[in-house]
Write a structure and sequence with these properties.
Length: 317
């Protein structure tokens, strides 16, 4: 009489397993099971809930960076983008309303997938391809209002202005013909060639450069955790919508020669041999800001005994 009892017990265990774990294979429900949707997650926090938030946003194609559990700028931007797309207050704070809606959504992206550079770009698109577009337009003098990876009204206006100057159909869609023209523009109107760097941009470039004083020197460094000389100039200019070549020598080749540097121009030096090997940003009064190998990002005097004999010239962008 014990055998049926044992059989009944095993059947009960199997049934309970099915009842308790019916959806362990479903990624979104696994997230939901571990997320307290009544909490508030905000910029600067570091914990497992932030990591679960990042995982969910990544499932839905809003977050594309490391799952590190750190609520930084990229996480905040992803939250704001999700909130904007779902009728929530786009404040970048993941509170109960945002978390509740986010974790009740199946892990199937409802967001438009980021397009690659070989796919048409149009208003409403997001991602690296849009950043690349904005950087190129800004470098040609068509101001997009920043390089944020969001194809909004300012980027649309810049694309249309460029298309008009190139004799293309000005529909604001970056298709094959517009991409080809961006890579090799036939002509740019005087309005957009007269001054690639505006007075406002110059002030912003200098302010952004000064904000990085004290950043250590790192060979090959391109981020605020450490810069080399051309990584520093490239980073500061990119923050202001202008794409520079990566190396000091390439920046020298790309710029327009000037007889004397003005604020915001790049100044170049030969520190090893006779060719260009160092670059900095001229800030006026005979001074430039640069990522030096010995002191990191500092302000230096162009007329001191080290820099003056090594100065090669200045280029504007």
């Amino acid at each position: 009489m014990k055998f049926p009892t044992k059989k009944l017990f095993l059947s009960t265990v199997v049934a309970a397993s099915i009842a308790v774990f019916p959806q362990l294979g479903e990624h979104s429900n696994a997230h939901a099971a571990t997320m307290n949707t009544h909490q508030v997650l905000n910029y600067g926090e570091t914990n497992s809930s932030v990591k679960a938030l990042q995982e969910k946003l990544k499932d839905l194609n809003y977050y594309h960076d490391a799952l590190d559990g750190i609520y930084g700028n990229n996480t905040k931007k992803a939250v704001k983008s999700y909130q904007s797309d779902h009728g929530l207050a786009a404040d970048g704070i993941a509170g109960p309303n945002t978390l509740g809606k986010l974790f009740s959504t199946a892990s199937v992206s409802t967001k438009k997938v980021t397009k690659t550079v070989t796919t048409d770009l149009e208003k409403g698109d997001h991602g690296q391809a849009v950043k690349d577009l904005q950087s190129r337009l800004n470098a040609l003098g068509y101001k997009t209002g920043g390089v944020d990876g969001i194809f909004g009204n300012n980027t649309l206006k810049a694309v249309k202005a460029f298309q008009t100057d190139q004799g293309l159909h000005a529909d604001g869609v970056v298709g094959p013909n517009t991409r080809a023209a961006l890579a090799n523009p036939k002509a740019v109107s005087a309005e957009h060639t007269a001054s690639k760097t505006t007075a406002s941009q110059v002030n912003d470039i200098i302010a952004d450069a000064k904000a990085l004083i004290g950043t250590p020197y790192v060979w090959g460094g391109t981020t605020p955790s450490g810069f080399d000389c051309s990584g520093f100039t490239s980073y500061v200019f990119a923050k202001n919508g202008m794409t520079l070549p990566r190396t000091a020598a390439a920046q020298w080749s790309a710029g327009q020669s000037v007889s004397a540097p003005a604020k915001g121009d790049l100044v170049f030096f030969a520190t090893t041999g006779s060719g260009v090997s160092h670059v900095g940003i001229y800030i006026g009064n005979g001074q430039f800001i640069n990522a030096s190998t010995s002191k990191g990002v500092v302000i230096s005097d162009m007329d001191n005994s080290y820099w003056k004999p090594r100065y090669l010239g200045a280029k504007s962008f």
